[in-house]
Structure formats: C-alpha cells, structure tokens
Amino acid sequence: MQLSIIKIGGNIIDDEARLLAFLGSFTALPGKKILVHGGGKLATRVAEGLGIRQNLVDGRRITDEETLRVVTMVYAGTINKQIVARLQALGCPAMGLTGADGNAILSHKRVHPSIDYGFVGDVDAVNTSLLTSLLMLEKVLVIAPITHDGKGQLLNTNADTIAQELARGLSAGFDVSLIYSFEKSGVLMDAEDDGSVIRRINAADYADLKARQVIFAGMIPKLDNAFAALRSGVKKVIIGRAEELQFLLTGESGTTIIHE
Fold first, then answer.
1. Gyration radius of the chain's alpha carbons
2. Closest Cα partner for 187 from 259, 235, 253?
3. What span, in angstroms and rounded, lies between the C-alpha atoms of 163 and 229?
4. What is the pLDDT of residue 59?
5. Model confidence pLDDT, tens digit, residues 51-107
6. pTM of the predicted protein model
7. How buried is residue 162: exposed, middle or buried, by Cβ count under 10 Å (0-12/13-18/19+)?
C-alpha cells in the first residue's frame, strides 16, 4: 500500500498564495498521505514581537522555556490548524496532530557535548499503530514538529527529522515515498542558479559534494535524513520545489536520492 509523506518548508508556509497552491496539489495526490510542516519564520516574528531573543546554531533554534511556549503556539496552534482548515475547505479529510497527541512521537531532550539546545527533542519512537489506524480510517494527517518525552515535557523537534522518522517507522506497513518540498528546484550545483539541479545523488556523490562544499548549511540535514530513511526501508526520497509536487512523486522533477 502506497503512502506519501510530504514535508513542506517554512518559506512556502510564509507565502499565502504559494501555500494555497501547494495545498491544492497535495489534496489532489492519490492514496494515503501525511503532511509534516515547520514554520520557523512566523515563530521568530512572534518571539521577537514578545521581546524573546532567538538564538540559532547552524540553523537550529535554541529552545529555552519561553521560546518553547512560542513554537508550541505557532506550530501546533496557528500554522497546524490553518493548514487543516484550508485542507478541509478543499475536501481533504485532514486531522492535525503533534507528537504528544495519542503519544504519536516520543522524544528525549537533546544531549550535546558542547551546546545546550534547551528543549529540543531527538526522536526515540513513532506510534505506528496509532498513525496506521488513522490512515486506514482515510484521515490525512497534518503533523506539527512538537513532540514529548513521556514525562510531561514538550520538545521542539526538527520537522525534516520528524518526516524521516515517520517514513522509517511506517515503512514496515507501507511503500513509503518521502518528499522534502520547499522553494528550490532540488539540490543545486550552484546555490544561485535554480536551474542547476542535480537529478540523482547517491552516498558517494553526497560525500564528494560535501567535501567540495558544493552543498552545505541547511541542505546537509535534509540529505542526512534522506539517506537515513533509505537505509531504513523507505522506497523513495525526493527533494524539490513545492509547486511541482505531482512531478516530484513521479521523479520527473527535483533531486532523487538513491541508496547505492
């Protein structure tokens, strides 16, 4: 049974017209599907409006107690419910979840040798039985990147990683395609040229591109997650432009990550 897990990037969420176009394409996708979203820019604006200073390390948000409140309100509240409402208006039977709902995603507070990330979570377990049950009820799941530790503590968790962990956990029961969709056409040879898409990348290519610093910063976590997903049984991973969603699934657009 086919399952599409789509992660939508924050730059699309920030653009009302592009988001609505994407949600139309997402609704039209056949079969079972899950949408994972972030929304970092809105969280940053809300936090700064409240006078809460935001700190990022390598693009990852340091999540202190006040910031955790903000990201929970923004991710699990405003963004998640707006997306669910818009999908419902398109006739898509959407259901919004966080990792804490139904014990869907269990995490632990990140431990790092030199950086205190605060209330940032790393995933331990995905409740595949719950998610499978909802999918079999024909629900389309919209998942916000807030998880919990099973002891009452919410944790801010990277949305790319959540998408990969969901794909890995659900691959035992479904043929999973994992799509990272954002504002770029795929993995680029030249970050300033959106036409320089690398059509296919395997593990050796990835190591070479990193060594030559062709790819860096925000793309590296996506590709790390992509290869981890393939090693765990996910059938297909593609990175590309959100507006080309239907072509990403067929491999006609974007960058296809291959495990060889």
1. 17
2. 253
3. 9
4. 63
5. 998 887 766 789 999 999 999 999 999 999 999 999 999 999 999 999 999 999 999
6. 0.94
7. buried
Q: Yes or no: say if 122 and 67 are a contact pair by the CB < 8 Å rule.
A: no
* Cα gap 120→148, rounded to integer Å: 10
| Collapsed DSSP state (helix, strand, coil) of residue 92 | coil
Give the CB-side neighbour count of residue 85, counting CA atoms within 13 A. 6
C-beta separation of 107 from 123 below 8 A: yes
Residue identified by tokens 């604006």 is 45
Closest CA to 104 of 122, 135, 126: 126
Q: Return the CATH number at 243.
A: 3.40.1160.10
Domain residues for 27? Answer: 2-257
Region 23-51: mean pLDDT is: 92
Identity (one letter) of the amino acid at 132?
T
Which residues, in sequence order, are bridge partners of residue 61?
Answer: 56
- The amino acid present at 131, given as its one-letter code, is L
60 bridge partner residues: 57
144 vs 75, 139, 197, 209, 236, CA distance in Å?
A: 6, 16, 29, 31, 22
Burial letters 229-252, b for 16+ CB under 10 A, else e: bbebebbbbbbbbbbbbeebbeee
User: Which segments of the chain are extended strands (E)?
Assistant: 2-8, 32-37, 55-57, 60-62, 94-97, 105-109, 121-126, 140-143, 146-148, 154-156, 175-182, 200-201, 236-241, 255-257
Question: How many whole angstroms separate alpha carbon 40 and alpha carbon 75?
Answer: 8
Split into its structural domains, the chain has a count of 1
